[in-house]
Amino acid sequence: MDTENLKKNFEEIQNLIHNFKEANDSTQNKNQELNNKIDKMTDDLTAKMEVYNTKIQALEAVANQPVVSEKEKNEKQIKEINENSHNFMKNGGHQTYNDYCNFNKIEKNAMSVDSDPDGGYLVLPTYDSIRKTREFETSPMRQLASIMTINSDRLVIPVDYDEASASRVGERGSRTDTDTPQIGQIEIPVHEMYAQQKVTQKLIDDIGMNIESWLSSKVADKFIRTENTEFVSGTTALEAQGFLTYSAWTTNTTASQVGIFEHGKIEQVNSTSAGAFTADGLLLIQNSLLEVYQANAHWMTKRHSFGQIMKLKDGEGNYLFNRALDMRVGKPFDLLGAPVLFANDMPTIASNALALAYGDFRAGYQIVDRKGVTLLRDPYTSKPYVIFYYTKRSGGAVVNFEAIKIQKLAA
User: Fold this and answer.
1) Closest to 372 measured CA to CA, from 214, 224, 228, 187
2) Could you give the 3-state DSSP secondary structure of residue 285?
3) What is the pLDDT of residues 346-392, one digit of tens each?
4) Mean pLDDT over residues 230-235, rounded?
5) DSSP string, 339-399
6) How many Å apart are CA 175 and CA 292, to the nearest integer?
7) Domain annotation for the chain: domains and CATH numbers
8) At residue 360, what are phi and psi to the nearest 5 degrees?
């Protein structure tokens, strides 16, 4: 505010009042009532001007004070703190250090991000969408096996695994009845899998994302991986039966055993080396599969196990399988001319481990779906929570026991 201009205006008003009074007194106006009113108005205006003058003097006093920089203020406060700290150590008595030093009276006007009350609350983080930072490997059973959707709780498959008998006879020889083929059946029940997730309604309302969609994708991914594990190694009455869990039929290692078939069992071909793959073992398992299944046959093993297979060398140190050693070539891996698919649910390399499978899985394994993933959204049962109840019903079993072969690493 410009105090010089204020003073000048104030003096001009005082002169006007003085001139007005002199002019009024000289008129010798005999109307006493009018004179009294004019005197009262003059007194009121004079009183207000005195208040105005007091304010001007106060502003002048502030304006004439020396200017103190922020640095000088901080240095003064630091000096006071040091002096107070020294005096407190000598004379503090029963007072607290804060009270003795009058910290509550110290001016605090600096703002920073690292203190929430001093401005940190105003610095808001930026949230990106959720990024998936972990991948779970699974098994490609739904990619390889046969899949059927049914509208009941089980699939019953009649199977023709027997043959009719026949016999030679002479022109006049007697004829006896020959054996007729037998028919069996395979029953595949569907089992229920569920997930029950509870989320508060407030979180659903306030969170900056579609949490229902995120939960559904996470549950569906877990359902798929759980099923794939069961299709390989499931054993309980509430699971799909994995192809590795069937009993072994007689191994075809000699000429007299070739062609032996046992319904309900899968052939396990020995690798010929304790806890290790061998070139001979790989040739044995591939050639144990009938030709009718070779066109659609695939290898299935763990990624690490395939790495060990690719390290096999001949007597001169040359790799036996080196067509696709580079994992970046962009071509499907193959072994002895058949595609290789990685299955994280296959066992690791160890003695007696069933670490490799070979066969036509579309002919050999049947997956049954009753229905896909269903969601029941329940906001009433457990307030303030909303319950997301997911279910899926599926099953699986081997339906052709000669279409799949398993490599057993020797003991």
Assistant:
1) 224
2) helix
3) 999 999 999 999 999 999 999 999 988 899 999 999 999 999 999 99
4) 94
5) EEEE-TTSPPS-TT---EEEE-HHHHEEEEEEEEEEEEEESSTTTTEEEEEEEEEEEEEES
6) 34
7) 1-17+42-61 (no CATH), 141-164+182-410 (3.90.1690)
8) -95, 95
